[in-house]
Each structure stands twice: as C-alpha cells, then as structure tokens.
Specification:
The complex is a heterodimer of chains A (337) and B (481). By secondary structure, chain A is of the alpha+beta class. Chain A has three domains: 102 residues, MutS, DNA mismatch repair protein, domain I; 74 residues, no CATH class; 124 residues, Trna Endonuclease, Chain: A, domain 1 (3-Layer(aba) Sandwich), CATH 3.40.1350. Chain A is built from nine helices and eleven strands. In chain A, a hairpin with a 7-residue loop joins strand 7 and strand 8. In chain A, helix 4 crosses helix 6. The N terminus of chain A is likely disordered. Chain B is of the alpha+beta class. Chain B folds into three domains: 65 residues, no CATH class; 140 residues, no CATH class; 164 residues, no CATH class. Chain B is built from 18 helices and twelve strands. In chain B, helix 3 packs across helix 4 and helix 7 runs antiparallel to helix 11. Classes of the chains: A alpha+beta (337), B alpha+beta (481). At the A-B interface, helix 1, strand 3, strand 4, helix 3 and helix 4 of A face helix 1, helix 2, helix 3, helix 4 and strand 1 of B. Strand 6 of chain A pairs antiparallel with strand 1 of chain B, so a sheet runs across the interface. Chain B: InterPro entries: tRNA_splic_suSen54, tRNA_splic_suSen54_N.
Chain lengths: 337, 481
C-alpha cells in the first residue's frame, strides 16, 4: 500500500492558521490516510457541487493531537501559514511572478482544451449511441449475436464503437465541433500555495510553529499508535470516535474519553457514557496517562473486542515508537441485565 | 434509539451484525466519495468508481483481511482522491476577479455596537446614520476584497458597496467582500482572488465610468498587477483570531460556509432595531395579559402563615383553587427597553443573522432575521452558565409567536412553548463538525392549563363518554349479529 516511503518524501507541510491545523495538498492527505491512519475531517466546499453539505472537500482540518503525532513521528512540520504567505508574497519578484502567471495560463489552456475534447467525445458518443439504437431497432433480429458480444466487452469498447460507426456510415455529416486552435484558457485557482515555496527547500528555513496540544493527547497518541483511526467526538459526546480502520469502510468501535490519572470520575459519567455508547453499538472507552507506575503494561478489561484489537495491532504497527507516556484504557458496556 | 426503554438495548446487543442501526447512528460519519463521483460524472465520462452500484452507509464492523474488503476500501479512497484533486477553474469570459486590499478601509470606524435610536430610525434613520459614517451592517473595516463585476447571482446576499467613502476614492463603486464571503466564494469556485502588486489606483484606475475602467484593466498585463492566489493563501489571509481586523475565526467561517452551502442567507449580526409594531399595540396587549396573570400573585399578601393553603369556602370552579395554589413565582418573559439590553460576551454572543432563502432579499436592508446564531468552539468553551445564556437570550429580539396570540388549545400551547419568547441558535464546532442547538426562553407560567381545565371539562368528558358508549354499542351489535 505504501507507495512512497517516508525517506523519499519531503515532510508534509501542515499549515497552522489561527491555531488550527490544515492540510491543502490532496497527495499529503491521501499519504497520511494510507500510511499514518490520519483521516480527520474535510471542512471545505467541493467546487464541483458547492450546494451540499454531505461531501466535503479540502482543506482537511487536523486535530491538534494529530498534528502533534505527525510532528513527533517526523512525518510533518507545522508552518505558520499567515506569516509565511505575507512574507513570501511580499518577496515575490516580477520575474517569478511572470513565470507563475504564465504557467497558470498554460495549465488553464490545457484544461480548457481537455474539457472541449471530452465534450466533443461525449457528443460523438451520444450521436453514436442514438444511431446505434436506431440501428438496433432495425437489425436486432438479424444479428443478435453480434450485439451480445458487444455488450459483454462493455467499458473500453465504447470509444471504438463510435469510430466504427462513423467509418461504416460515411453519409453522416462530420461532427461540427472542432478543436479551436487557440483558447483563452481557464483562469485557475490553485489549491495549494506550492508556487510560493522556494525551489530548493532548505530545512529550517521556515520556522516551524508549535502545536498546542490538549490534555487528552496521551490517550490519542496511545490509540493512534495502536493503529486506530480517530475522529472528533462531537457526534457521540466524547473526545474521540475510535475506528478500527479507515472510517470510509468501518464503523467506529469506541467512544473515547480521556481522564486524568487522579481525576475523579463521577458514576453518572460512567453510566451515561456506557449507556450511550452501548446504544450506538460502541464501547465507552476511558483512558489516561499512567502517572504512578510507568511499567504497567496497558491491559484492557474489554474482552469482547480483544481479538479485533490484537489483529489491528499486528496489522499496522507503525513506524516510530510510542510518542506518548504509557496509557491505560478501560472499556465499559452497559450490561442491561 | 430509545434510551429509557430497558429492552431494546439488549436486543440491539444481540443483533450485532445488524447494519441498519449503524446507519442510523453512524450514517454521516464518513461519506463515501464513490457516490459523489458517480453523481459528478456525466454520461460518457466513465471512471472506474462510478461504474459500480453503490449503496450508502455500507460499512463493515472490522477488518477481516479479505482482498474484497481491501479492494472496496481502495476504490473508496481512489474515488476520494479523484474528486478532491480537482482544480478550480473559471470561464475566461465571466470570471469573477477579486483583489485583496486588507488596509483599504482600516481607518473606517468600527461597527458600532449601539442600537440606533428608535425615534431617529423611523424617519431619518438611514440618512443620519450615513452622515455619521455608521451604516448598519457595513463592517467596512473588515471588508478586504474588492471585486470587479457585480453580476453574479451569488452576490444577492454577499458584499457591499462602501457608500460612506469619499466620492473620488478609488474602489468606492466596487463591491467589497468580508473575509468569510470572499473565502466562501473562492472555495466554491466562483471567485478568483489576486494579490495586488500595485496600488488600488492602478488596479482600479480612476473612476471615469464603469465601462472604461473595465477596459483599462484588460489593457494591462495580468502579471503587472498582481499574483493569482491559491485556496491555501486565501485561508492564510482570511482566517484569524476572533476580532482581528479583516479576518474571521475558522469555526465561524465553517458555520458560515455550512449555512451558505445549504442555501441560507447569512450576514454578520448587527444590533437589530426594535420591531416597529411592538412598542404601541402588542405591548399594551401584553400588559393586559400580564395584568390578568398578576392577579393571582397579588393574592400572596393575603396568605397567612398557618392554616390551609386553599381557604375554606364554596368554589364553583377549579380556577380559583389553582390560583391560590400558585405559590412559586414563575419566570415571566417581557420585552426589554433597548437601553437595558445586556452586552453578552464572546463566545455566547449573536454573530450571524440567518435568513431562509426567500426570493426577495435586499442585503442593504434585510428583513428581521429568521435565526440568530452564536458560534462556539467545542474545545475552548463549556456549557454556558445561566448568566451567559440569559444575556444571550436577552440580547435577541422579543419574538413570541405572533399569529395565534393568546389562543388556547393543546396544539397552540405547545407550539408557543416550543417557539419560546426569545430564541437563539448556538452552533458548536468541534474541529470541523458542527452541531446546531436552539435555545429558547420558555415560560410555562404563561400557559395556564387550569384555565382550559376549568372551561372545557364537560365537553371533554362528554366526548370520552360518547366514545365509550359507542364502543359498547358496537360490541352489542356484534353480539346481536
């Protein structure tokens, strides 16, 4: 699955804007998702369909815990993006500006050409299909075998079909749509500011910003280290929704809540959390960093899920050791006797 | 999922493989982008992902190491990759170009917190306000992006012309956007943002006329004027801490964008002028109502320290008894005069006014908002205290349900109670996930149910009795047949 090892890849730039941690590069997002079980929340509008809230697009907003884990695993660096942009934009000289605008224009032209081309192809296809239907209605009794063979090899054949049709029916007028020689080119709004990056990235050039981690960081780091995927817990009233795999594919198993080692936990929290968790088919997971005796290995009282846990652990041991102090976790379920 | 039912959780425990439950609770957790690609791709432009039939909410409990599962996950991921690698592009003809001038209106006065006097507001309100450089809802200091064209349909509730500026000020006739408006337009692929290298005088040459200035811009080469910015740059420039000039905090922007995507119209909140019909007519009506309600409380003085609560005597209706039983003072909502309005503190403070998308909407003179919204970061604030909630609610306008004032009947009573006398929506944002909660000022003491009991007992009892008898008759007939 890992297409690039972390050695070849430059550090992922996490942009810190007003205390939030954002990712703009889809390649980075997918890389982290595949290799470092970071999924987090897409918070942007998808320009292809901007009037809906179901599917969200870039940027990806990382939880501070995620940013911190990535920094500690030496996968990412955090950059204060506001100062970066102001400095870079002020220092952007005319030559590079011209080159950049030129390259954007070229890209725009290419994209427009591509769009026109695909439109033409669509038109041809549709014409071809309508022709084909007519033809079918005439000849479906005569050569049924031919049709079925065509249908069997459906996908890639389709483009050929139109060609064949046009070859075989020379009387049809040539498609009126032609590729224009010169297009004005789309105006493009790039997603990332990679154009502002210096061509030879020198480490330490940009002062990396610090991450303000919340108190629940040890629990997060612990679970992340075990290969779990975490999402913000707002939907189930917890700190983290804990998934055994990519949330694209799996339901979450736990509603994780962090407690300090000496923090008093009220019975109401336990009962309430346990009941809520159970009724949405999740374990109510509580955990905290071990303070007194760091030798205690973490053991789960949760026996029901222990199998799945071990599997996950074995499957995706991640590079880099644990980045947080040892943590003990417990899992509650509402027995409902 | 009924929480108070003891049996159902047990059942659900056993049915561990039942996916429908997960769908209900988990449905919007992570959307499958394969569905999205299948929506996007038109006929002919086939991608691998869209060619398969896809159901929503189809998820597994855990990894079982099969190749099929990995394949499905991989196709989901690649569909996501494909959708999100899109680059925003604008048609060259009708591209909407914006220029970032953060300090253009820096010397404008900040948006005033005070409410325009009711007296001046009625006749000469707009004029006097203009001369004082404080047009309601202009937020000129925060307007940082100037756009060239004013034709887009997106602009019906977005952007303002800074009318208070001097006449010969370059950029006066342009539409200026707030950071959240600009960022949203960029994000949805409507706006192309540029970083100006030259001053505003050169980007928008002297204002001879709208047509000429447009032509002048075309003459200059693009790269002489500025740099087209990326989405990342837009976030870096527009997202800031609360109260920073020309910026907006990320959680507020997320709420703004979420509402705009759904189709609501959203403007930054301004102090609302008191509603015109309130002062004279309805207030007197309410005073009249209060005078009715206050009667029982006036009895308080006549309670003696001993003896029965209900004085012995002959009662022909329960109302008098209930009135004597009303010992505890109840909350009575009442409209406040503008001078007494509290100034709530952040974050429990109305920040957005939200309107449903009606056809007629004038952004310079918006109607009273449908919703008033405060935005709260889930991680940096906790449950509001009574004081915070109280001042939040008191700062919203007095808005009881007006149509069925004082009408009785169960449906109306509960509708009125649910609507509340004042209400505010609090949007809680946890790292990009938003939950909306509506807080209302309730007053159960305003709905005296015993008045209904006193008035209608016979009718109700009669109805029930009638049904009973009807049932008996039915049975009788059945037996007879």
């Amino acid at each position: 699955m890992a297409s690039l090892s972390s050695d070849e890849r430059p550090l992922v730039r996490v942009s810190k804007v007003a205390g939030r941690y954002l990712l703009f590069d889809i390649e980075d997002v997918m890389y982290l998702r595949r290799n470092y079980n970071i999924c987090s929340v897409f918070v942007g509008t998808i320009p292809q369909n901007p009037q809906q809230n179901l599917f969200m697009g870039l940027p990806l907003e990382l939880m501070p815990e995620e940013a911190q884990v990535l920094v500690e695993k030496k996968v990412a660096c955090v950059i204060d993006d506001a100062t970066f942009h102001l400095n870079r934009l002020a220092a952007f000289d005319e030559l590079s500006r011209r080159a950049y605008v030129q390259s954007l224009n070229n890209q725009g032209k290419q994209m427009q050409m591509a769009v026109i081309e695909s439109q033409n192809r669509n038109k041809l296809n549709q014409q071809g299909k309508s022709k084909k239907k007519k033809k079918m209605s005439k000849t479906d009794l005569e050569e049924p075998k031919d049709m079925s063979s065509n249908n069997d090899v459906n996908g890639p054949i389709e483009a050929d079909e139109s060609n064949i049709l046009f070859d075989s029916t020379p009387t049809t007028p040539k498609p009126t749509v032609k590729l224009p020689v010169e297009v004005e080119g789309y105006l493009l709004t790039p997603t990332t500011s990679s154009f502002l990056l210096p061509s030879s990235p020198r480490p330490g050039l940009d002062s990396s910003a610090t991450v303000d981690i919340p108190a629940s960081y040890p629990l997060f780091a612990h679970l992340h280290d075990k290969g779990y995927y975490m999402m913000p817990g707002l939907r189930f009233g917890c700190d983290y929704n804990v998934y055994p795999g990519d949330p694209l594919r799996f339901h979450s198993h736990f509603a994780g809540v962090h407690f300090g080692w000496d923090e008093e936990i009220t019975m109401m929290d336990l009962v309430g959390g346990g009941r809520l968790g159970t009724s949405v088919k999740k374990g109510y997971l509580i955990g905290g960093a071990v303070v007194e005796d760091p030798d205690i290995k973490d053991t789960d009282t949760d026996t029901g899920h222990s199998n799945s846990r071990d599997q996950v652990n074995n499957q995706s041991r991640l590079k880099g050791g644990p980045v947080a102090p040892p943590v003990r976790t417990f899992c509650l379920e509402w027995a409902g006797m | 999922m009924p929480f108070d039912d003891e049996d159902i959780p047990l059942a659900s425990l056993n049915a561990a493989s039942d996916d429908s439950l997960f769908e209900a609770e988990d449905g919007d957790q992570a959307q499958d982008f394969r569905m999205f690609t299948s929506l996007l791709n038109g006929p002919g432009k086939k991608s691998q992902a869209s060619s398969k039939a896809i159901r929503r909410g189809e998820k597994d409990f855990e990894s079982h190491g099969t190749r099929a599962q990995e394949g499905v996950l991989e196709s989901s991921r690649s569909a996501m990759h494909e959708v999100l690698s899109y680059t925003r592009q604008h048609q060259p003809r009708n591209a909407l170009c914006g220029w970032y001038f953060p300090d253009r209106w820096a010397d404008m006065p900040p948006e005033s917190e005070s409410i325009p006097d009711a007296a001046t507001d009625k006749q000469s309100g707009s004029r006097t306000a203009k001369s004082r450089n404080t047009v309601q809802g202009l937020f000129a200091r925060d307007r940082v992006v100037a756009i060239e064209a004013d034709k887009s349909t997106m602009l019906t509730s977005t952007g303002r012309v800074v009318t208070t500026a001097d006449k010969f000020n370059p950029g006066r006739s342009k539409t200026w956007l707030l950071p959240e408006e600009a960022l949203f337009l960029i994000e949805r692929g409507t706006l192309d943002l540029w970083w100006p290298v030259r001053g505003i005088e050169e980007v928008f040459p002297a204002e001879k006329g709208p047509e000429e200035s447009q032509e002048d811009i075309r003459k200059l080469e693009d790269y002489d004027l500025g740099i087209p910015l990326s989405l990342q740059a837009a976030y870096a420039l527009f997202i800031g801490k609360d109260g920073e000039k020309g910026k907006i905090s990320l959680e507020k922007y997320q709420v703004y964008a979420n509402l705009r995507r759904t189709g609501y119209r959203v403007l930054r909140a301004t102090p609302l002028p008191p509603r015109p019909p309130l002062p004279q007519t309805s207030q007197s009506l309410w005073q009249w109502l209060f005078s009715l309600i206050q009667k029982p409380f006036s009895l308080h003085s006549s309670y003696s320290g001993y003896g029965p609560l209900v004085k012995p005597g002959l009662y022909r209706s329960y109302i008098l008894i209930f009135e004597q039983l009303a010992l505890v003072q109840r909350h009575k909502p009442a409209p406040l005069p503008p001078s007494e309005l509290p100034q709530p503190q952040d974050p429990f403070k109305i920040f957005f006014h939200v309107w449903k998308s009606n056809s007629s909407f004038v952004k310079t003179r918006p109607p009273p908002p449908d919703f008033q919204m405060a935005v709260v970061d889930a991680r940096e604030s906790s449950v509001p205290t009574l004081e915070q909630l109280d001042s939040l609610l008191l700062s919203t306008p007095w808005s009881p349900l007006e149509k069925d004032e004082g009408r009785q009947g169960a449906g109306v009573v509960y509708k009125r109670l649910k609507h509340g006398w004042r209400n505010a929506v609090v949007a809680v944002v946890d790292r990009g996930l938003i939950s909306y909660m509506r807080f209302g000022e309730m007053a159960f003491g305003e709905e005296l149910l015993y008045e209904n009991v006193g008035v209608r007992p016979r009718a109700k009892r009669g109805g029930r009795a009638g049904k009973g008898r009807g049932g008996a008759k039915g049975r009788g007939r059945g037996r007879g047949g």
